[in-house]
Amino acid sequence: MLVYLRLIKESFSFALTALNNNRLRTFLSLLGVTVGIFSIIAVLAAVDSLDRSIRENLDGIDTNTMYLMTISFGPTDVPKWKRDNFEPISYDDYKFIRKNISDVEETAYSIFGIRETVRYQAETISGVNIGAVTHGIYAIERLKLDKGRFYTELESETGAPVVVIGYRLAENLFGQEEPIGKQIRIFGRKLRVIGVLQKFGDAIGDSPDDTAYMPVNFVRGIINTGKTGYPTAIVIKPTANVDIDAFEQVLEQKFRVHRGVKAGDISDFFLSRLSGFVNIIDSIIASLNVIGWMLSGFSLLVGGFGIANIMFVSVKERTNIIGIQKALGAKNKFILFQFLFEAIILALLGGLVGLILVWLITIISTLALDDFKFVLSFTNICIGLGISTFIGLVSGVIPALTASRLDPVEAIRSGI
């Protein structure tokens, strides 16, 4: 064991000597490994951070939650001209679901894609996301209140002029002023602020922090929700432990009858689970990882050739020393491991530089983006070090074998 520890120490010493004596050559040789490790780990860290952020946003939302609308979550075989002629999901459809579908914990009717200007006294904010939705969304999305309350079912049904605003929207409109009870203008109408949500952070699409939630029946009297108007949807959360496949079949069949869809005809709506959306995200993230590995692989290949090159040069420069070591009794295995360890150490140095660069970028990016946190996980660090070790091992094995097989007499003679 002590022999191998001494071998590692000597190899590290030789590696540092090679770095010091041939700085430019070593720098250029290790640049490929550094760029390759940086590229791979940067992509993995970015994708992991994005994946973590998405899952945190979906945390608490039941993935069995269904969205009934005329827009599909993913690819569909239904031609666009047919989809364009689908009857929009109406408020009557929502009432039918509530009355006729069992095993439903909560439902909500929503008009989405609305952007409006919000005003409070001299403050004006444009392009605010309007959450025109029934009261059930509060339980489905598990929204949390910082102060005040959410509107009731009665207020939702009657279209009361009340609004619940997101954390950041409240800060931008009111600053340090108490928002509860104040009146703001949306669609040119006055609405009373009855609640402010807790800070949520970034989300898929629009964050609740920047959203104004109001009863859908208030908004229905103002905007168009027909074929040429804003899209609508019914959000359905089944009860816990229900047979989700059977529930989906019953729901689709009853809704087809309600909409007058004939047997054999395609449904004029799409019923999509949130889990399907999650699967789409997973496939996108997997594709990003593959692309990152492919692009970074070229840099690692160049880095591997660079390490191999510097090791062949190192063998050439130290041929005389190798001959002396063998003449003094050094075994082939000792010479082999000496150069292998040196190649691995050189590759690890390049990999460490790449990891340090990624770490610095994650810190800077996290500070620059207030609501998004970049994370360099321990797993990715291990992957980076593992790849570096593998590159060093593969790149150094042929030069190390060449050095270990040198004839001691010829090696000493070549150095004279």
Automatic annotation (TrEMBL):
Similarity-based family: Belongs to the ABC-4 integral membrane protein family.
Signal peptide span: none
Gene Ontology terms for molecular function: transmembrane transporter activity
Protein's cellular compartments: Cell membrane
Designated name of the protein: ABC transporter permease
UniProt topology in membrane: Multi-pass membrane protein
Keywords, in A-Z order: Cell membrane, Membrane, Transmembrane, Transmembrane helix
A Pfam family of this chain: FtsX
Domain MacB-like periplasmic core: 26-253
Domain ABC3 transporter permease C-terminal: 294-408
GO annotation, cellular component aspect: plasma membrane
Transmembrane regions listed in the UniProt entry: 27-47, 290-313, 334-362, 374-398
